[in-house]
Specification:
12 strands; Rossmann fold; 2 domains; four-stranded antiparallel β-sheet; about 260 residues; ATP-binding
Length: about 260
């Protein structure tokens, strides 16, 4: 197992944000975390990043407690792509921004190595961002910037990538482009992916596993192909759904019942 969560709980002051969360993620897995607003999805991501410390339970990374990793060592194991970035704060060229992702392999006076340049160039090529390496990040479109953020995460060369709603605010074309890129990283490059998403159809079609959270509790964890079930979705979202089959994959798609 790459990640193990054992009865994880997280409290801030008197508020319980997560409680009794247990699951495993194998190397090469694609796990989508779904659930309504306020269910604890982003809190779980922050715990996996080591930003929030569990109040109970434990997170295990490659057989060791996650909290035992120094920050640079943790950055070599886990990369992160945020939901949205304030572009005005990114006054860097794309190339410089992606190069900064190599901080985990350097100290204040260490020198840039050929391995660093190779990692950066590979990340740019995989994400098809080489054409605008000289552009300022704050001049990019939403879709272009998201690909650069993924390139930056790739340059860390970590086995696990965390993404917090990576297609929020993107139009359908760029949503598909980001989804296809994540599929390529997972299936062709062996990247383990944990993605927070509100798109349950994307999660059920393209993930291997789904973890459903509700009010800080784990409601369901299992194979993505088994997730679409009427009572389960109603309990999760307090909403009825209509189901149709995808014409290409044959898997169920859920449409909110507005009647």
């Amino acid at each position: 197992m790459l990640i193990e969560s054992k009865q994880l709980a997280c409290k801030i002051e008197h508020a319980t944000l997560l409680n009794d969360i247990s699951f495993t993620v194998a190397q090469g897995d694609y796990l989508s975390i779904v659930g309504p607003n306020g269910s604890g999805k982003s809190t779980l991501i922050r715990c996996l990043m080591g930003i929030l410390q569990p109040s109970a339970g434990e997170l295990i990374l490659k057989g060791q407690p996650l909290h035992s990793y120094p920050r640079r060592a943790l950055a070599r194991q886990i990369s992160y792509v945020p939901q949205a970035v304030q572009t005005q704060s990114l006054a860097f060229t794309v190339l410089d921004f992606v190069r900064m992702a190599r901080y985990a392999y350097h100290h204040p006076f260490s020198e840039w190595q050929p391995s660093d340049e190779a990692a950066v160039q590979q990340a740019l090529e995989i994400t098809h961002t080489t054409d605008f390496i000289c552009r300022q990040c704050n001049t990019l479109s939403g879709g272009e910037l998201q690909r650069v953020m993924i390139a930056s995460a790739l340059a860390q060369q970590s086995p696990l990538m965390l993404l917090d709603e990576p297609t929020t605010f993107l139009d359908p074309h760029h949503q598909v482009a980001v989804h296809q890129l994540l599929q390529t990283l997972n299936q062709q490059h062996g990247m383990t992916i944990i993605e927070v998403t509100h798109d349950i159809n994307h999660a059920s079609q393209h993930s291997q596993h789904i973890l459903a959270l509700h009010q800080g509790q784990m409601m369901w964890h299992g194979q993505a192909s088994e997730f679409m079930e009427a009572q389960r979705l109603h309990d999760l979202y307090q909403q009825d759904f209509i189901f149709v089959r995808h014409p290409q994959t044959g898997r169920l798609l859920a449409l909110a019942d507005e009647s």
